[in-house]
Amino acid sequence: xxxxxxxxxxxxxxxxxxxxxxxxxxxxxNILSWLPISTLVRMKIVCKTWNSIIQSKPFLxxxxxxxxxxxxxVLFADFIHRSIAAAYNPMENKWVLISLSHISSSCPSTCCxxxxxxxxxxxxxxxxxxxxxxxxxxxxxxxxRIIPPMMPLLWxxxxxxxxxxxxxxxxxxxxxxxxxxYSQVYDSETNCWEAKGELDGRFAxxxxxxxxxxxxxxLSHGPDNLxxxxxxxxxxxxxxxxxxxxxxxxxxxxxxRLILVGGVEELGVMKRIGIWELNSSKKRWDQICLMPxxxxxxFSHGNLNHFITxxxxxxxxxxxxxxSLVLMYDxxxxxxxxxxxxPLGSSLNKNSWFGHAVEPRIDLLV
Length: 366
Hints:
By secondary structure, the protein is of the alpha+beta class. Helices cover about 15% and strands about 45% of the residues.
């Protein structure tokens, strides 16, 4: 009986491989191009035919012609035991585990293990590896690129990454805020940093920036302002707008509008979390909505000093870096829901936070 079962399994396996070879490659290219990247990554190991098709230039061209809505919120990671991250897919309402170890295709003995994520955009993440190098990584294709060190300004830090039009082009903007704002820009096509713009005025720090119509917009803290950086000309300006008094503030772009998220305090206690939209004509932020009281009560658990917002495609994750309790809000659907339990729950600690949303693209090779 055992031999019969094994024989049947071998026959079914050989039949499936033979079936793959019956269809011409261009038909497989069309079929596979409609699948999400998480499925494609698994399908690459099914057979050599599919692996070859998925890595071919005709397939990448077919894949980019399809509008994919893949989205993953990579929120927590186990950097110590397994070098793995937990990513939530809102389309399927489930978590997947992603390896943070990248093997170099040109040198298989070289391994890059991510230690801390800095910024992200689209399908790319800028992170530190365990050797202290700064790398640009595609978490799904496992490709990465070590970039040169930033220019020697005082304590520079990255605030934005902007994907370009081509498959491998991107820019990174970093700033130093010692006695004024100094900025430098990394261009992947030249593989070097360039000093580009400065702004008078002392700020404690700048938040992560968002890109809209050729400008980077970011929040400054201490004092609180909305700043704009012209990426082409390298010039900074302070946007004339009245800033509400908020804690844990976060800025994002939704439908070509600037959106502000933050916590409202009363007598030093955070009482609610709100969302505002920039009203440019009246130079103010207009409130869109507040987190419902019953959700805020559960999220804050009676005492909330700080929270983190991660966003992409109008979906917002509200998190506390040391807790796996995560609340999501969809701005387009005006819908709130709790994420299912994170599969890394037993491994979470104060160093487990990853906190970036990515739109994985198999054609985006660094």
